């Protein structure tokens, strides 16, 4: 037997004929035409090299091969039906699943802790992994299911990715407590007179802050490059360097903080997932938790701006 020729639909027809004992009634059970049932039976007979049913009056009597096959066939069909049903259902209270994220530091420090706190009571066996993925591999990782969610402040334009703003923030200037730059309101001249740490996730990737300064005909003196926001406070407290960090990260540290002395567009952080995951119940559930948390985080961001 060539297993590549097996069509599971044929065994659904086989089960219906065995149950009904008649091709017409089997067609009614399956909601297809009698010729379609006859055609499927002919294909299955050819596949198994056995007549399977012998007509006795108006009744289709199963052969010994059919009698031996019906039990395993029904078990296989039930297993498939149950698997399909389970794939369309998600019970967070009993589900065991790990969601894969690739998030920058702000999201890891702000959104993910809120997510874990929110789901821990509802879904005790759900875990969150957050790891770095090269930007050029993100779309493939999302499409293959290797990655469930990706966040970035830079927009991605792939047509198969769904995008949602998950957080908004603004850059502020930070330095060690007692830094002389913060003795009076920070001016552009004072800002530029000090040395800086620059944060960029990828080598050679332009920094929006420096692009804006270049538009003003200005340039910072950068003496250190880092690809993580979270490491910057420990450097600042030991030096006279300045850095520009997202406000919702900077506020958690004992640092001197000032607004930028020039205008900058706000930071938008986008959550991405692949369109193929839209209808997956588990993915939809965790998405709903994320987007609810995102709304409260964005509301707190707006409140901090008014304050």
TrEMBL record:
Keywords, alphabetical: DNA-binding, Transcription, Transcription regulation
Keyword ATP-binding: no
InterPro entries linked: LysR-type_TF, LysR_HTH_N, LysR_subst-bd, WH-like_DNA-bd_sf, WH_DNA-bd_sf, YidZ_PBP2
Keyword Transcription regulation in record: yes
Location of the HTH lysR-type domain: 6-63
Domain of life of the source: Bacteria
Alphabetized PROSITE patterns for the sequence: HTH_LYSR (PS50931)
Pfam family, one: LysR_substrate
Family: Belongs to the LysR transcriptional regulatory family.
PANTHER family for the chain: HTH-TYPE TRANSCRIPTIONAL REGULATOR LEUO-RELATED (PTHR30118), TRANSCRIPTIONAL REGULATORY PROTEIN (PTHR30118:SF15)
Name by which UniProt lists this protein: LysR family transcriptional regulator
Organism: Alteromonas gilva
The organism's taxonomic lineage, starting at the top: Bacteria, Pseudomonadati, Pseudomonadota, Gammaproteobacteria, Alteromonadales
């Amino acid at each position: 037997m060539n297993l590549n020729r097996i069509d599971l639909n044929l065994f659904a027809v086989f089960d219906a004929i065995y149950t009904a004992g008649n091709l017409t009634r089997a067609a009614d059970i399956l909601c297809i035409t009698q010729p379609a049932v006859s055609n499927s039976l002919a294909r299955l007979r050819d596949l198994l090299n056995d007549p399977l049913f012998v007509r006795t009056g108006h009744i289709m009597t199963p052969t010994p091969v059919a009698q031996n096959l019906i039990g395993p066939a029904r078990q296989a069909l039930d297993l498939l039906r149950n698997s399909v049903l389970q794939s369309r259902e998600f019970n967070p209270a009993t589900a065991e699943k790990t969601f894969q994220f690739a998030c920058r530091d702000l999201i890891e420090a702000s959104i993910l802790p809120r997510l874990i706190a929110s789901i821990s009571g509802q879904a005790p066996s759900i875990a969150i992994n957050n790891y770095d993925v090269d930007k050029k591999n993100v779309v493939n990782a999302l499409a293959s299911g290797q990655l469930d969610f990706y966040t970035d402040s830079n927009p991605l334009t792939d047509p198969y990715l769904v995008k949602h703003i998950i957080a908004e923030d603004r850059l502020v200037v930070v330095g060690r407590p007692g830094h002389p730059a913060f003795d009076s309101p920070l001016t552009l001249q004072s800002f530029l007179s000090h040395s800086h740490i620059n944060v960029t996730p990828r080598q050679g990737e332009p920094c929006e802050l420096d692009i804006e300064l270049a538009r003003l005909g200005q340039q910072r003196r950068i003496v250190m490059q880092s690809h993580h926001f979270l490491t910057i406070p420990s450097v600042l407290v030991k030096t006279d360097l300045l850095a520009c960090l997202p406000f919702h990260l900077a506020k958690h540290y004992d640092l001197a903080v000032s607004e930028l002395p020039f205008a900058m567009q706000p930071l938008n952080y986008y959550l991405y997932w692949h369109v193929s995951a839209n209808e997956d119940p588990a993915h939809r559930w965790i998405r709903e938790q994320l987007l609810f948390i995102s709304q409260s985080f964005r509301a707190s961001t707006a409140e901090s701006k008014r304050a």
